[in-house]
Specification:
Blueprint: H1 15-29, E1 36-37, H2 49-61, H3 81-97, E2 109-112, H4 115-121, E3 131-136, H5 140-149, E4 152-157, E5 176-180, H6 192-205, E6 208-212, E7 238-243, H7 245-248, E8 256-259, E9 265-266, E10 269-270, H8 271-282, H9 288-297, H10 300-326, E11 331-333, E12 339-343, H11 350-361, E13 363-364, E14 366-367, E15 378-382, H12 387-402
Parallel strand pairs: 1-13, 3-4, 3-5, 5-6, 6-7
Antiparallel strand pairs: 2-8, 7-8, 9-10, 11-12, 12-15, 14-15
Helix pairs in contact: 2-9, 3-9, 10-12
Length: 403
Amino acid sequence: MKINSNFLDLHESYLFARIGAIASAYQKEHPEKRLIKLSIGDVTLPLAPAVVSAMKEAAEEQANAETFKGYAPDQSCYGYEFLLRAIMRHYDKIFLAAGRPNVLKECEIFVSDGAKSDLGNLLDLFSADNTVLLPDPVYPAYLDANLMDGRSVEFLPAVRENGFLPLPEREKRADLIYLCSPNNPTGAVYSREQLKVWVEYARQQGAVLLFDAAYEAFVQDARFPRSIFEIDGAKECAIEICSFSKTAGFTGVRCGYTVIPEELKRDGAELNRLFRRRQTTKFNGVSYITQRGAAAAFGEEGERQTALCREYYRENAKLIAKSLKKLGLWFTGGENSPYIWLKCPEGKDSFAFFLELLEKANVVTTPGSGFGRCGEGYLRLTSFGSHEDTREACARLEALLRS
């Protein structure tokens, strides 16, 4: 019996698990200290009332034979009609704001238990012989999922000089290309013109763009697309992965959706059809209760309430930005993204500065080096805490770094 030896090439533990373990060990040694986490991107506000109400009602329906729901319908690939319609209405608004018609269809939407799951599950469609192109720094799940399959990975530097928004290098050949906008970890956002360049490149290469739009709801500037499908030609080369986690606070509920256009074909096969086959074999869908909550998040009242939650987190980002400006520290992000990408002062390396803030300010961050070679010298901060904790963390940072 042999194991998949590709797993032996990975770090012993996932980035955020490593950071969590270090913070927990420090807390155990110093129980009198109160740690404030600006590290992991987990939300802290409760679910919107409209979502909770819908889920309660759905749970009550499950208590009666007349309204009980079992498996979701196969033909929709596990999205109930009410949720598919809600997602389509959400896209209607995105395309309307961009001055374009909605080019998507319900049959192109796959409902799942989250974007992270789909980012890994989609790889079942692609041979291990394919070459993957990743930005550096990068959300570590992209890299690890491909290393598990044994794929060759190339990196494209995302650095301060290109605004952490690399464009394709014509001499690089790639089959799978990952883009995340707004970006995790840097908070950078691609413009419409920049995404046009990527779509053209993918079509010329015969590559597939895996476009992670988990943070699209944080985009406020109309210059920045919220969907890759706002770009002409994207339906022939792109898959979009979306999430309710940051849009509606579903980190503990788990729901997302992926869009695979019917036009997207590679090696003579329709990827929409292949993924449908994959899902019906390996996945049994998201619970009815969860899908009712997700649909409510895209309802009129749900959208109003979840927008207030996102505004709350934007206020946290403003608090962090204000403190960093006071300290004269360079940073980016935080405007159309929940993440702030901070340049470590005095040329300190990421992990050393992470430890300094942990031990001297009791603030937990994420060292940029954990996201790749080009992340060295940076820290990622998140705005998903409470106002009170964010203010306290900022005060601690100011006190430490001024001294």
